[in-house]
């Protein structure tokens, strides 16, 4: 029951703030302590907007976000700032997230100073412990961001994000800017820390290989809506929505043939030009008249899985790719 009170959820009808473009539309999701929710989709799918809505950085025009059972405070208020100690955002570009005039140790310490957490000397000890936890060397404490590699900078950003003992971390493409050889190291570290600290984590990425490695559950987004949500192993072994099928088909697992591979056709989605009905219909090989006319609801299609497709059963049939 204690765990349930820390559930992080968002309900119905959230819209991006960009004029009339529905960056995020009618999304409902939950992340529990100790759980990592992967959010995948092409660029323009609304994933980043969703991340900002979750943290209250972009206000939802409809719907609500609750954190630890209470509504998310309004952006910029004292309540919002206080709640920020419990939730942290990690962006793609660590250099942009860091202040180039301040040492790494100062920046890891800063959130504890701002939120007045821990006693003075405990803060210093904690900086050292956090640096060790993310695999930074003691002698890097007094370095400046430009004196570190990209991977080390992202480790510093993660250490700083953990400084306030957050309950929730939203990561938006946290390793996309790093060399492929470094990505796995940083992702594994993040996963281990998440596990150890029982964090709720939302991991936003266009890179399915990374998400497969880190997520317990996966939500697949297309033009601002979730089109499929299921435990990670189900998403990757037996995707049901045609869009998920196409995404998963593009990252085959060696030695694990995927039934019904599908090649993604056509242009990536454009939020300013949303097709009628099922927004995926112009690219879907199964589309019928109904798909052009009516928006499919996200609904349970089997235990632990929801999908938004009129033809979720027949769409699972093999097709000639
Ligand atoms: Fe394809 Fe129709 Fe399903 Fe949309 S609702 S994914 S167009 S079959
Ligand atoms: Mg993005």
TrEMBL record:
Membrane topology classification: Peripheral membrane protein
Q: What is this protein called?
A: ATP-binding cassette domain-containing protein
Q: Which UniProt keywords apply?
A: ATP-binding, Nucleotide-binding, Transport
Instruction: State the Pfam families in the record.
Output: ABC_tran, oligo_HPY
| Gene3D superfamilies, per database record | P-loop containing nucleotide triphosphate hydrolases
Major subcellular site: membrane
Which residue range or ranges hold the ABC transporter domain? 5-248
Looking at the keywords, is Nucleotide-binding present?
Answer: yes
Spell out the SUPFAM superfamilies in the cross-references: P-loop containing nucleoside triphosphate hydrolases
**Transmembrane feature ranges:** none
Has UniProt tagged this entry with the keyword Zinc? no
Q: Where in the cell is it found?
A: Cell inner membrane
What are the recorded GO MF terms, alphabetically? Answer: ATP binding
**Family affiliation:** Belongs to the ABC transporter superfamily.
